[in-house]
Specification:
46% helix, alpha/beta, 2 domains, 8 helices, 250 residues, Rossmann fold, globular
Length: 250
């Protein structure tokens, strides 16, 4: 498929995990990808270029509005004005609520929610001008509540509210805004969660798999496929939605 030929896609948090898989997926389908991360996502870009597609690497701190504006302006110069934004940058700072520090609260809200606000507000200027845009943000099953993740749950629930509101405000400009809420996906982030509770990544995945209807955990590429659908014109009448990708878990 070449669903994104002629499109420029910006993917935040593109150095690893779901972000890297999404950048690779969009590039494989024809997009020119701007891969953003606080640490240069060079390996992701090298993989894309080796496959014969187009990508550039950018260092960006999504919590810093000036950094976001500067990078988006550079992307517009290097690759063209962005048509697609994937708000994937995220961190965890897990702890039980009674111990949760204000620094850890602020850090998670700043990256996961305020970062999406910064990127979407900058991106929408380009999208409104061209009367076309797709914004897909990463929420999480944790938005429904998860022990030891009050900060992360609050941020990811906020993504769902932000998504619904932006769909209303930006819809008249032919901009679709949606969110994807993964369940347990085998990434470095979930491996860190396993370590927090005293398990190996494999042990933690097995525990989760046993209570998941499909009997396994998810892979980054499976989330990337859903993101790509929502970023494509095949989903042109889908907006304001949060799609859970969690193996049927309840």
């Amino acid at each position: 498929m070449n669903r994104f030929t002629g499109k420029v896609a910006v993917v935040t948090g593109a150095a690893q995990g779901i972000g890297a898989a999404t950048a690779v997926q969009l590039a494989a389908e024809g997009a020119a990808v701007a891969a953003l991360d606080r640490n240069a996502p060079d390996k992701t870009v090298e993989q894309i270029i080796a496959a014969g597609a187009t990508a550039r690497s950018y260092v960006c701190d999504v919590t810093d509005r000036a950094s976001v504006q500067s990078v988006f302006d550079q992307v517009a110069t290097d690759l063209g004005q962005p048509h697609i934004l994937i708000n994937n940058a995220g961190i965890t700072r897990d702890d039980m609520f009674f111990r949760l520090s204000e620094d850890d609260w602020n850090a998670v809200l700043s990256v996961n929610l305020t970062g999406a606000y910064h990127c979407a507000q900058v991106a929408q200027k380009f999208m409104v001008a061209q009367r076309y845009g797709k914004i897909v943000s990463l929420s999480s099953r944790s938005a429904l509540g998860n022990r030891g993740q009050a900060n992360y749950a609050a941020a990811k629930a906020g993504i769902q509210g932000l998504t619904a509101t932006l769909a209303i405000e930006l819809g008249p400009y032919n901009i679709n805004v949606n969110a994807v809420a993964p369940g347990y996906i085998a990434t470095a982030m979930t491996a860190a969660t396993a370590n927090r509770v005293g398990l190996t990544a494999e042990e933690h995945q097995q525990t989760v798999a046993e209570r998941t209807p499909l009997g396994r955990v998810g892979q980054p590429e499976e989330v990337a496929a859903v993101i790509a659908f929502l970023a494509s014109d095949e989903a042109s009448y889908v907006s304001g939605q949060t799609l859970y990708v969690n193996g049927g878990a309840r």
